[in-house]
Amino acid sequence: MKNEKHFGLRIDEETLKKFHFVCEYEGRSVNAQLLYMIRKCIARFEKENGTIEIKE
Hints:
mainly alpha; 61% helix
């Protein structure tokens, strides 16, 4: 992606270990799994509430 942004995430060790397990099960990296989940969340929101308009 040309306009990639980086952000930090604070997470407890147990949750992170479990998330790594889920990522491995799904066959995705942690980053890919997070992007997948974020995109699904946005799609569900927009389906229920309409398109999110981004103002620059």
